[in-house]
Amino acid sequence: MDIAVASEGDIAGIISLMRSSLGEDLMPKSEDFFRWKHYENPFGKSKILLAKEGSGLVGLRAFMRWKWSSKNHVISAMRAVDTATDPEYQGRGIFSKLTMQAVEECKKEGVEMVFNTPNSISIKGYLKMGWNEVGKMPLFFSAGSIFPFFFSESLSAEILSEFNISEKLSSFDNNWSLSTLSDFYYTPISFEFLTWRYKNCPIIKYGMISEGGEFGIIFRIKPFNRFIELRICEIWTSSEGTSQKKIRDSIKTLIKKIRPLFVSCTYSPMLNNKHHSLPGLFGPFYKGPIVTIRSLCLEDLDNFINFKNWQPSIGSMELF
């Protein structure tokens, strides 16, 4: 078995392998989605390793590039994401071999850490390979409308057309970015990142409220049983004062329009208030996905364990 670095010419074979080994249940397997995720990412092209047997592709391991930023430090990171093994080759250690080779190559490149959100089965394998369990991501919740709407695709499309993310981003300068003034690590927010992650995402549609970058809310209308979860994926203010009121008023507007059963959010060091959280929400409750990390070139993981100085947005940790 040979291990090789993937090229764009391998994408068709990769998609075929993912479909045969994983199906389409969790995420769509398409060339457009794979290209958006791994080749159009503003943090850089992913590290994608392939296991080949003769002329056949039998294994895949992809680490997606990411960054975590505080006012004093920008950390280069990888997110361990796509993996697949041909069903006839499972049980031969291909996943571990590809993963550990990716780890070693990332170390040589100076990447500082790798993180991911494994499920209850795969987490055991990651812990054996040197990952550390951070814990469940902290979330905040509040009740939504006392007369919640039932979820429907037509309702979602109507609301998202009113809060059209393409229209909102069109008022931003292409070089716009938000200064990171916090001690907490967070995904740096810029026009380029918002465009890639939310506007161009091929599998999920998002809405946005903003005034030229002064403040911003990016949200998702997510089905919850028959009802709606209003999920706040990114939220920020550029200054104190009037922006705080605009954030509160905007959330009230969304609740009135969407009539969700509940609202979910997490900490945001880009939300310029004392607690980095939306007023009126309760928490934190440690109900989010389990997160694991592994040091590569970063000597001390203390800032990340139990989310001590790490406040990722829901949008940063969503499965995609």
Helix content: 25-40%
Q: Describe the sheet with the most strands.
A: 11 strands, mixed
Provide the number of structural domains: 2
Relative strand content: 25-35%
Any idea what the radius of gyration is? 20 Å
- The average pLDDT is 92
N to C succession of SSEs: EHHEEEHEHEHHHEEEHEEH
Uncertain residue segments: none
The strand count comes to 11
Strand and helix map with partners:
Layout: E1 2-5, H1 11-22, H2 31-38, E2 47-53, E3 56-69, E4 74-85, H3 94-109, E5 113-116, H4 122-128, E6 132-143, H5 153-162, H6 165-169, H7 191-199, E7 207-210, E8 215-224, E9 227-237, H8 242-258, E10 262-265, E11 282-295, H9 314-317
Parallel strand pairs: 4-5, 9-10
Antiparallel strand pairs: 1-2, 2-3, 3-4, 5-11, 6-10, 6-11, 7-8, 8-9
Give a brief description.
With 320 residues, this protein is of the alpha+beta class. It folds into 2 domains: 2-111, Aminopeptidase; 138-288.
Description of the molecule:
With 320 residues, the protein is an alpha+beta fold. Helix content is 28%, strand content 30%. An eleven-stranded mixed beta sheet has the order 1-2-3-4-5-11-6-10-9-8-7.
Features of the shown structure:
320 residues; 28% helix; 11 strands; 9 helices; Aminopeptidase; 11-stranded mixed beta sheet; 2 domains
